[in-house]
Amino acid sequence: MARILRGDIRWADLSPVRGHERAGLRPVLILSHDVFNERSGTVVAMALTSQPPHAGFPLTLELTTRRLPKRSWVKISQVRTLSSERIGKRLGRATPEELAQVTEGFNEIVGA
Fold this sequence. Notes:
Mean pLDDT: 90
Oligomer: single chain
Low-confidence stretches: none
CATH topology: SH3 type barrels
Strand order of the largest sheet: 4-5-3-2-1-6
CATH architecture: Roll
Strand content: 35-45%
Radius of gyration: 13 Å
Helix content: 10-25%
Distance between the termini: 34 Å
Number of strands: 6
């Protein structure tokens, strides 16, 4: 499998889940750094949705990547550590500016 890189948008199998977690095969944004992804066998990622959000930033951020099949938003509150085995085909990449905004939004949520 190709290296999983920070900023990649990839398919991931998020099932099984509990409660309000995002489920099924869906795109995720990879947040963890490349070295972590390579050495740990896991990635830190946030789920994407094509459903228009009920809440804006910092809970969601629209991505402008043209290669995505649908208009998409990062669910900033839906952060998960996933086994690399759950990660599939690459769909695109977030811009450095989008990654910075996602990080900023997450920091607002957790109070960093």
